[in-house]
Amino acid sequence: MAQITIDPAVEKAAEELRNKFKALRAEIGKAIVGHTEIVDGVLTALLVGGHVLIEGVPGLGKTYLVRILAKAVDLKFSRIQFTPDLMPADIIGTTIISEDPNTGTRSFSFQRGPLFAQIVLADEINRATPKTQSALLEAMQEHTVTVGGTRHQLEEPFFVMATQNPIEQEGTYPLPEAQLDRFMFKLVVNYSSKDEMKTIMDRTTTGYTPTIQTVMTGAEIVGTQNLVRRVIIAPHVQDYAIRVAMASHPGGPFALEVTNKYVRWGVSPRAVQALTLGAKLNALLDGRFNASFSDVKKVYLPAMRHRVLLNFEGEAEGVSTDDLLKELLEKTPTLTEAAA
Question: What is the rounded distance in angstroms from the CA atom of residue 253 to the CA atom of residue 273?
């Protein structure tokens, strides 16, 4: 087998990325206690050019996390508090009439909304109406905003982190499937442990104020996004990522019995893209330039859980989407007979 030669410049960039990633973890750890998987998931999405949906009950530090992240990566930060009366123009911006004080000439000008930032926190996104939620679609997918027939380019990198409360559903609007699919990961924040709770209390009730140092710039993040796409994924690993995603398609060639029984809709190709990019970044962070089966498995749940829709029987029996996906992951072989 021919040996693959890695460009020294790429090796140096990969080493710098590993050091920067560790430094980002450390800076965020000054303020956020525990939740390592959540922090890693958010950083992964940012560094490959995706967006994140975070679900958890109030008070677990979801909003605080993205504030600290914005400081650590030196990007323009904007928070949008979603409410039922929020309109699309409130987040995108609107065209207004302005008058020249000297000549009295009136003209139209575009007043930018809070969406024109690099890290956007969409707080409690499920409290806004579908009309307002959908205003994010073009920005998340194309990194542009169109108002009055004029297209405005958003500054790169552009990263949306949305939060939602899974408990209080009164007066909320579930996100449309088309928008859910545009989030690379859905991360679920669980309760802190006893030791973590003690550390949180020691930090938040004693006047502790963390000093967050800037670790990465916007240009470095864009460079990382390009570097990740140069990582190799072997045909048999790519085939596994495709099969483990297609295992969620009821009636499909790779569907399992549990899929046909409980799943109404499976995942789209965006899920395979998320699996591939997440696996490539994990490989780089592990000092490799080729993605492996374990890299795919590591990002499987966050990349899949918001893209699978259960049918009536699955909902009636209280089937957990995560448990179903774990079964698909466990029972889908890494290699097919042809590849083996």
Answer: 20
